[in-house]
Fold:
Amino acid sequence: MTNRTDGGKALLLSIVLGGLVAVPSLGQQQSATPTRKTRKATIVGRKKVVRKYKNDSPREAYELQKYSNGNSIKDGMYTSWFPNGKINRKGMYTLSKKSGVWVFYFENGKVAKKGAYVKSQPDGKWTVNKEDGEPLRVEFYKAGKPEGKWVIYGEKGHVFREVDYKDGKRHGEVREYYPGGELRFVMEMKEGKNHGQTVSWYPDGKKLSEENFTDGNRNGRVISWSKEGDVVHYVEYVNGSQLDEKQQTASAKAPEPIPTPPSDSDSEGAAKPDSL
Structure:
């Protein structure tokens, strides 16, 4: 049994999900609450506001609800434009909070992302696209937190990764695929931590690596195989601590650092959240 570095070991998925960084929540973008501005005040009117660029083309347009205490809040349709005159984003405010369906665009006119807000928190299905219009992610939210299965797309629209979320944390499985659709790895998660088994495969379906976690710590054997099926790497852990050779059921040298996969937001052409 050897412990050499080769393609199999390089792909050994020590995928402690520190490597899969959470996508920033769209729900973190919130307008100020209207209660302070409208407390003990009555509505006295409405006003449509149009702000312009220096060349006099429209920059944004929105409606204000005016109150007897002199304050006003956004309430109604909102639209903003790029300097080239194409729409940047459009949606609705209800008492200063984003509500209903919002659509964000790239400067080339293609849709960057689309989804619904409830009190400025993303809720339900959101679609995120690349600048060429190809899909990048399908996301699901509940009260501003990721919930359900997210799907991340790679080149030519193939499914690159699927991630299960519960209450804003990865919970369930993370599955990643090769460009041809073959399963690359499956990782079990619990409340945002690796918990259970992580297994990876070569494109031809042969097993590449296997490791086990308990509450984010390696627990048990970490092993990888060559394409020919030979063991090329073996080490054992107990609650995150690597056993020495005398304690292990098979002797092995300490493993070299193992690369982690890119974060959910690392795909090219990601449409970044806008703040209003």
Observations:
- Residues 142 and 156 are 29 Å apart (CA to CA).
- The radius of gyration is 25 Å.
- Helices lie at 7-10, 35-38.
